[in-house]
Amino acid sequence: MRWSIVLVVALALAAGCAARPSDSPWREVSLPQHGARVLEFAPIAGGVLALGSIPAGDGRAPAAWSSSDGTRWTSVPVRPDSPYGALAELISAGTGTHTVVLGQAFGGAHSNPRMTIWSGDGRGLTEHTQAMEMFGGPHAIAVTAAAARGGTDLLVGGWDGDNGRYGAAFWTSPDGADWQRHADDPALSSAPGEQTGAAGVGTGAQGFVIVGETLRDNILRPLVWTSPDGLGWQRHELPGANAVAARVGCGTAGCTVLGQSIGATPHVLCWPSAEADPVPGPGASTVDVLQVLPTASRVLSLVALDHAVQLASMTPNCTEWQQISLPVSAPGARMAALPAGLLLATTEADRSRLWLHALP
């Protein structure tokens, strides 16, 4: 697979100085529904699917909306089929022949995250109730992200495998309803003396890409796994020690991976290629990589530095980083590219705000 690996801090969207509030390039647009939290975007035919939740009773309920331009929204029917499904927020998605969605609710004796699985399209999403130990139970670690390509749906996370060493795992499905767990894949699962972890997943022209890390000899090392079909995987260890890979986005120029160094003063890192040493970017007390989005000529990324989201634009070879201000300070955000421009959802504890910006 031909792919480039770029790791960046999110600082800006287009060239130019930070805009004053009176002439900000951002335009706020209406939420699709009062009190909506928009936590994920997924491309669909003719536009984008916004996923998240709305207020319901003392908590939240899953919700989804579709739009062609980011300003006019149509409510998408969401059909839960379990008690946790009715309380879930929709947090991750991938689109192939249909859209597969990962939902999350908290509950039970220990208030642990409870995964819910959905599939559908812009006409509706349906929850598919799973046996408790498919994604949960005593061997569960986490389910972190969803992707889809063609007729294959993929979830990634962690599992306590049959070998007794917990590590990276993945789940596959042809339809979003019937899933198979792969907890002992030789490329992803933990070998003796190591512990692997999968943090994010994406798709490109050549197949699926999972990003994460391995802990070996008390040193964290960043990893990328690639697969043409979501079943057979190859492991690629990136240069650099005490670092992790966290998010990936793929465009026509290849795949872009975001991650960070680990230590007392973590920094965003940039690998110009799979073989090159990582280039450090800005640092903060806390670094949380949120998203990477390749466009036709640039790569956009979102990172939270000290719990404040930053936005960045660069070329696919990790050059020409450009910085401007975001419209507001927020701890969370997601973005999607539309013909009308860049659609941004900034999210606080109780709701989101939506913004549009012309693409660079």
Topology:
Blueprint lengths: L26 E3 L7 E8 L2 E10 L2 E9 L6 E3 L1 E2 L9 E7 L3 E9 L4 E10 L2 E4 L4 H4 L4 E10 L2 E9 L5 E8 L6 E3 L11 E11 L2 E10 L2 E9 L6 E4 L5 E9 L2 E8 L5 E4 L8 E5 L3 E8 L4 E7 L2 E7 L17 E7 L2 E7 L4 E6 L3
Parallel strand pairs: 6-10
Antiparallel strand pairs: 1-28, 2-3, 3-4, 4-5, 7-8, 8-9, 9-10, 11-12, 12-13, 13-14, 15-16, 16-17, 17-18, 19-20, 21-22, 23-24, 24-25, 26-27, 27-28
Description:
The strands form eight sheets. A five-stranded mixed sheet has the order 6-10-9-8-7, with no helix packed on it. Strands 1-28-27-26 form a four-stranded antiparallel sheet, with no helix packed on it. Strands 2-3-4-5 form a four-stranded antiparallel sheet, with no helix packed on it. It has 360 residues and is mainly β. Strand 8 and strand 9 form a beta hairpin. The longest helix is centred in the middle third of the chain and has 4 residues, at 132-135. It starts with 26 loop residues before the first strand and ends with a strand. The chain contains one helix and 28 strands. It has a single domain (21-357), classed as 7 Propeller (Methylamine Dehydrogenase, Chain H). The chain has one helix spanning 132-135; strands at 27-29, 37-44, 47-56, 59-67, 74-76, 78-79, 89-95, 99-107, 112-121, 124-127, 140-149, 152-160, 166-173, 180-182, 194-204, 207-216, 219-227, 234-237, 243-251, 254-261, 267-270, 279-283, 287-294, 299-305, 308-314, 332-338, 341-347, 352-357. 1% of the residues lie in helices and 55% in strands. Mean pLDDT is 88; it is low at 1-21. The radius of gyration is 19 Å and the shape is globular.
